[in-house]
Amino acid sequence: MSQELQLHVNGEPRSVEVGTHETLLGVLRDKLKLFGSRGGCNIGYCGACTVLVDDKPVSSCIMLAVQAEGKRLTTVEGLSEDDKLHPIQQAFLDHSAFQCSYCTPGFILTTKALLAENSSPSREEIREYLVGNLCRCGSYYNIIEAVEDAAGRMRG
Amino acid sequence: MNVGKAVPYIDALERVDGSIGFTINLEFPGMLYARVLRSPSPHARLLKVDASRAEHLPGVLAVLTGADFGPDSDMELFYGGMMSDQPVVARDKVRYVGEPIAVIAAEDPETAERALSFIDVECEDLTPVYDPYEADTEGAPLVHDEYGTNVCSYFKLRHGDIEAGFAEADRVFEHRFYSPAAQQFPLEPHVTIASVDDDSATVWSSTQAPYPVRESVAKVLRLPEDRVRIVVPPLGGGYGGKNFVKLEPMVVAVARKAGRPVKLSLSREEEVVTVTKHPAVVTIKTGVKADGTLTARKVDIHWSGGAYADTTPPVARGGGLTATGPYRVPHAWVDSRAMYTNLPQAGSFRGLAVNQVVWAYESQMDIIADALGMDPLEFRLRNLIDEGENWVTGESMEDSHYKDLIREVADKIGWDKPSRSEGHLKRGKGLSVTLKSTITPSTSRASLKLDANGTLWVFASSVEMGQGVKTVLAQIAADAVGVPLEQVRIVDPDTSVTPYDMTTSSSRSTFSSGGAIRDAAHSLKSQLLDLASEMTRHEPADFEIADGFIRSKNPSGKEILLAELLQRSGCDELFAEGSLETEGGLDPETGQGKGSDHWHQGAGAAEVEVDTETGKVTVLRYHGASYASKVINPTNVRLQNEGNVVYGLGPALFEEIVFDDGRVVNPNLDSYPIPSLEDVPKHLTSSALEAPDAKVPYGVGENTLPSVAAAIGNAVFRATGIRIYDLPITPEKMLRALRAKQEYSK
Asked: Which of B122, B337, B464, B713 is the most buried (most CB within 10 A)?
């Protein structure tokens, strides 16, 4: 079974033909070629596929694409404006908050959701909120520092 | 100068905007998708593999089976990174659960997946062997019948007179330590795409070893190596799991059959049967005098290598070579035996081979110190080798800094101050030190091209897998030639343009590719000086190159841009080649000789808290230190040093692949957790020691990883009096041991 799906991705309406069994991650990558969302474990544990659905972080590997109809989707490709990095991206860059960076878009998007809820999170709150995003290279310390810095920048 | 500066990753922008081009993103016109039929049995004779029904399904372009490798085939069945013992797909026998039996290439992944169930397989089960000791006994089932033995690799070290050494000792200690299989777990799985014509092949692969892969692909396709091109985009993690050849042979073989490009990317369930960490049993017997001086050490290691060799020979060697530790041991004896078993092949794992032996020798160092009533730090300092001392291989250990490293971590953890336990929360501190070899002998080549726009192109085959090698090599190249970092471009590995490099492993790239680049830079600079000399009729020695300019050393100090020098000389580009080759090697009977060009050195100190009600071990504080010789980029060094510690927490505390009759029970994160922010110590710090006059950077690589488990295990002992011998140190094991101790004290 497939159907024409109206998605709202990074501020733009996108119409795609999708199978009812297809995951949101599969559609973002294979149909829309948004490769910033990445499959890691494909069972919703590693966070590499994190996207924002109505501003909430969701593991797109375990969400059906049809469930995203009518919702606002944000991927890492939708963060920069006028070729200027989002402050969270800039903080991750400045702190080298990555090594292989396969997990980085997921961390950045979860951070965006965190900072929307809590503009000055403590280290403990950062750890708790980002616990579902895994970095196998082990760059967690730089990530915590980048999140703290991003919070500061966004508070202005 | 760029070397020594914390410059950001040169590819940082594409890492934070998500545009970095991993292999898994690549697609080509007409590309097919592969799926693999895998063995359900750990050990069986293959009686029938009938793919005819699958071949006729709509959308299926090719099915590769053992039957494609008959006497008239244009392909070779066997390949291997170290030994040609692995079939592209199983033909006569299957040797582990998950071994490829057939590969299907179809128009889309779903069709390929569905077609798997249309292949008929019949097999006759054989008795499997899993345990490396059992595999090493007379009459054990043979994993490879034709070899007549299950021994895959055997490393020996003989130094001094071992029996005399034990006779000199006042006390002799013998213990056995166990490390289970674990997963490298790169978040980007293994991915290979191949396009094969009659007389050439191009392969895009997430590999750490483009040149060894080229060799295997050429062998399988029976093509000259110069007709095979291996392209390696940046990796989404490797950790040794992508070292040497993996999926490439089956993908090129099915692509040749299908006549169209084919892509294979593995599921997590397939990842865990593609490569694992070596399970190892280390039995270590140590003689010591009453004053704490070591007299002798005898070590037996049994590695389970799985069904095929992969990188087992260097593991048996690297672990065996270093099994007595960085200590002064006058009489040493090591038998390091790697066995074929009916498990998925074990291969390189971040901290190669040394993780398993450091767990053993550093745990035992604390056991001995405790028995002698000595402080573990003092006991180590009494026995650690000094600068220039002779070691168990008979080689002189130059540039040794083990004492500095252990003092550094002890100081940073506050070794002098006792931990404070409260009620059921027991705290303690532990230390560990690591010595690790780098592949020796080995070769890296590099070339440099300076174009008339002033851009310096660096060609090297070191793979960027997150360790930041492109950034570090750019810094080295910029300084070695004398151009600004912004003018340096690093070309991604592509065997049709980037020159030979052995592998990106063994913590070697900063040293070896960096050395090759410096060598090439030397030649490039002399060409530039010659050009200036020709243009001005001054001697080449009258000029110097810096910041992208060439300037006269005479008082006039005239300078012009390098780009302008090339333009004025009518020269479009200058090209230079360089290499770094290391020498060494060991006698196969005695392990005497030169084991490593230079030695990787690390240490770690942990403070843990053990909840005696739940058995949970929490690492409160950790300091890792490595000897860098010379730091190229402090940011990258910190990421490596601390990333190692985080990575090491998994196998220390919870990572273990569980097999049930050879079948992996816990392939994915729901049952195989890896460290998250919850597990990372609240205080994690690191340092990299440098030598003030160091000429050559060693790189830091994996040096802080192997100490992690023993530092934690030793801290757990000092907190609770419980000694765990088999990793990981799980709450279940702790609780069981705590209860047994309680019972005993009643």
From this structure: B713
